[in-house]
Design goal:
Two copies of one chain form a homodimer. With 183 residues, chain A is mostly helical. Chain A has a single domain, classed as Tetracycline Repressor, domain 2. In chain A, 75% of the residues lie in helices and 0% in strands. Chain A contains nine helices and no strands. The N and C termini of chain A lie far apart (43 Å). The interface between A and B is large, with 47 and 47 residues. Chain B binds a DNA duplex (30 and 30 nucleotides) through helix 3.
Chain lengths: 183, 183
DNA sequence: GCACATAAACCGTCCAGACGGTACAGTCAA
DNA sequence: TTGACTGTACCGTCTGGACGGTTTATGTGC
């Protein structure tokens, strides 16, 4: 099948992420999103009746993407008889390189309406909780997951205080530490 | 000596952090800061001629606090013949509980003028780089530091997906892992 | 000890522009 | 015909910042 062109709705959400990542959440205005998405302001407001709806849309899409990805990784792990956390980490690593601007949704929402993050908070905390409890050593698992969060933070704020040549070794080590969790 | 009352300048910076932590960076307006600090708008503008100066002040104060703290921890470690990273981690842990709103400065700056973070980026990355290189196992050190970052992120966005009863064990484990780095 | 000067610290108001949102008439492909 | 938009005009509110005025602290000469 051809790479079917994304819906306008998704184009708008992409544009919103781009604006936040490039100019900061303060400049996430409806006008700016419209311009970035090559859509009229009325077009944006057609899909998202107000700005809260836009922010909600950003957070919801992000959450469903993360949820899908974790689910896929867990399925893959189960089918291959591999430890789930290792697969989850691997997929997160491989994405954080390409799609920097994913958690920009969190930034944008927290800037304007911090309470929009409440559902995300709950889902993420129970998910991570569960993933940790499934390992023989939940404490170590939590530490590794914190390290993943740290990586997210550094991408989010462009704090790449990890030199490029050490990225791969760190990735490998984190995965092997995850693997050892189950030993 | 009496607990000499903080300068108006510091009061204003504190107020700015409070506003960001409570209402989101979008609501970090000069008026809001003035109200929170019980100072007039003109008063704020006396100390910080414009908003960029306010944001810069926030970032600079945060950076100097972090710098001082790391320096103190390193001195303490040297004097006691203990591993530096362990001391640095310990002090970060003990602060992150009390003063949640420290890295709110980063949030606020990234929301409005992402480039204000450039100096912070550089200092932090060289510092962490150095701390890691001083250990026998820089890769593992980086992972542990990422975990600290992750903790910061979860505090920053109020993502406390670490259950309270596991906070202490995680703290202890992280410190012991840091200690083992040098073994 | 006191009048006075000077500057620092701070107040309150005003204004231009930006922003969110509304309204509505028109376009255009399916 | 309908749904998915475009384009323009407009309104109320918020915000950064300029500005002029006022209080408070710090000398300084007498």
């Amino acid at each position: 099948m051809p790479p079917n062109k994304p819906s306008t709705r998704d184009t708008i959400l992409d544009a919103a992420e781009t604006v936040v990542a490039r100019d900061g959440s303060r400049r996430l205005t409806i006008d700016a999103v419209a311009a970035e998405a090559s859509v009229s302001k009325g077009g944006v407001l057609y899909h998202f009746p107000n700005k809260i709806a836009l922010l909600t849309g950003m957070v919801e899409r992000m959450m469903s993407e993360i949820g899908d990805e974790i689910a896929r990784a867990e399925t893959r792990a189960r089918d291959a008889g591999k430890p789930p956390l290792v697969e989850v980490f691997a997929s997160m690593f491989d994405r954080s390189e390409s799609q920097n601007g994913l958690s920009t949704a969190l930034l944008a929402a927290s800037a304007e309406h911090p309470e929009l993050l409440d559902p995300a908070r709950e889902i993420l905390s129970t998910t991570f909780q569960r993933l940790a409890e499934e390992t023989p050593d939940p404490v170590a698992a939590h530490i590794l997951m914190l390290a993943m969060d740290g990586l997210k933070l550094s991408v989010l704020l462009d704090f790449n205080h990890i030199p490029d040549h050490q990225f791969q070794p760190i990735r490998d080590r984190l995965l092997s530490m995850a693997r050892e969790l189950y030993a």
